[in-house]
Specification:
Largest sheet: 8 strands, parallel
CATH topology: TIM Barrel
CATH superfamily: Glycosidases
Shape: globular
Strand order of the largest sheet: 12-11-10-5-2-1-14-13
CATH architecture: Alpha-Beta Barrel
Structural class: alpha/beta
Helix content: 25-40%
Radius of gyration: 20 Å
């Protein structure tokens, strides 16, 4: 069972496994996986695979959003207080948390405070009722059709989290799930939310759940001028005009979050390993570059590393399906002091042949293929088990 540490010190030793619920386990068929539809992955499917994850050696699971929503990936939320029935039930989630905790595995949930689905009942009321109390919960530049959203996605209206009732709603949702046993959050699109919100969010969460870890996604790539009004980072126009400094962006959340995902690491391993003919020759340079970047931050600010995630091409695609390059990237990742994040299927050789291109609608589905339970690369799997065991000293 998990021990009560009274702080987030447990995350220093975290080895995180990132799961997209619909695509990991519990589906009966994988038909139409290349379409943006539910294929049947379940929360209880993850529970049944806990022995596999325990054998792999991970001690933290990062779940994609499980809240009631409209889309297979879970990010289009219609109710922050309910589990989507296509993923399972509240009891299924409770069983997963309980069984994971028995194995000393913690659960982090993906939380999406910046925006919701346009099918959220509060937004539906806001656009259909001129006197709706929820109109101020969103950013209407001209009611009812002109409203701010997540970047350019009109089906994802942006919450006005600087409006106290809306802010309280979102904080209460986060507190609710922590009260059900969730151990922390990966916070989606933190650059869209004001620093004022994050400061209060942290204060409210930590006052009750000091062990809850708060890790942000501070990603600025692909941002155009028209998107700037939807963002809440400091000096956003000048930074967009002259180019974003990754270090300064990640440092911006110090004192508000416990850390942010390290996109710099991903960029450097693509540059020095995936795209190099003989990456071994560049290891010293890569190590120096990564260490120099880390020196910009205090020791207690987390920068979890990842080789791949659900929004970008898998590493095997980037490196021309070269397993040895993937092993080198993973070895580099696990040699660093920061918590490593392993995206589902990395350890089994899951890959694709078409790129993820942010300019192509739904191309991110390539990085979200169903877990390849029937075609596991066991040699790669054993390599990952050894990496994890060596890091844990077991």
């Amino acid at each position: 069972m998990l021990k009560d540490t009274g702080s987030i010190d447990w995350f220093k030793d975290a080895i995180v496994y990132h799961i997209l619920i619909d695509r990991f386990a519990g589906f009966k068929k994988t038909n139409n996986w290349e379409k943006p539809v539910f294929i049947g992955g379940k929360i209880n499917g993850i529970t049944k695979k806990l022995s596999y994850l325990e054998e792999l050696g991970i001690n933290t699971i990062w779940l994609s959003p499980f809240f009631k929503n409209t889309d297979y990936h879970g990010y289009h939320i219609t109710d922050y207080f309910k589990v989507d029935n296509r993923f399972g039930t509240y009891d299924d989630l409770q069983e997963l948390i309980s069984e994971a905790h028995k194995r000393n595995i913690r659960i982090i949930a993906d939380f999406v405070p910046n925006h919701c689905s346009r099918n959220h009942p509060f937004f539906i009321d806001a656009v259909n009722n001129v006197s709706s109390p929820y109109r101020r919960w969103f950013y209407f530049d001209w009611w009812p059709d002109n409203y701010r959203c997540f970047l350019h996605f009109k089906n994802l209206p942006k919450w006005n989290l600087d409006y106290p009732p809306c802010r309280n709603y979102m904080i209460e949702a986060a507190k609710f799930w922590l009260g059900q046993g969730i151990d922390g959050f990966r916070l989606d699109h933190v650059i869209g939310v004001s620093h004022s919100f994050w400061k209060q969010f942290r204060q409210k969460i930590k006052s009750i759940y000091p062990e809850a870890v708060l890790i942000g996604e501070a990603w600025f790539e692909g941002i155009s001028y028209k998107h700037l009004k939807t963002l809440n980072i400091n000096r956003k126009f000048m930074r967009w005009l002259f180019g974003i400094n990754v270090t300064k962006l990640q440092k911006e959340y110090m004192g508000e979050l416990d850390g942010v995902l390290d996109f710099n690491f991903r960029h450097r391993i693509i540059e020095y390993i995936a795209w190099k003919e003989n990456p071994e020759f560049y290891q010293t340079k890569l190590t120096e570059t990564l260490n120099k970047f880390r020196m910009n931050f205090p020791e207690d600010y987390f920068l979890p590393t990842f080789v791949e995630n659900h929004d970008m091409s898998r590493f095997l695609f980037e490196c021309g399906q070269n397993r040895e390059k993937l092993k080198l990237a993973l070895k580099t990742q696990f040699s660093l002091s920061q918590p490593p994040v392993l995206y589902y299927g990395t350890e089994t050789g899951l890959t694709h042949i078409n790129p993820v291109d942010l300019s192509v609608h739904f191309s991110d589905i390539q990085a979200r293929k169903p877990m390849n339970w029937k075609s596991i690369d066991y040699e790669l799997l054993e390599f990952c088990k050894t990496l994890i065991a060596d890091r844990k000293g077991t």
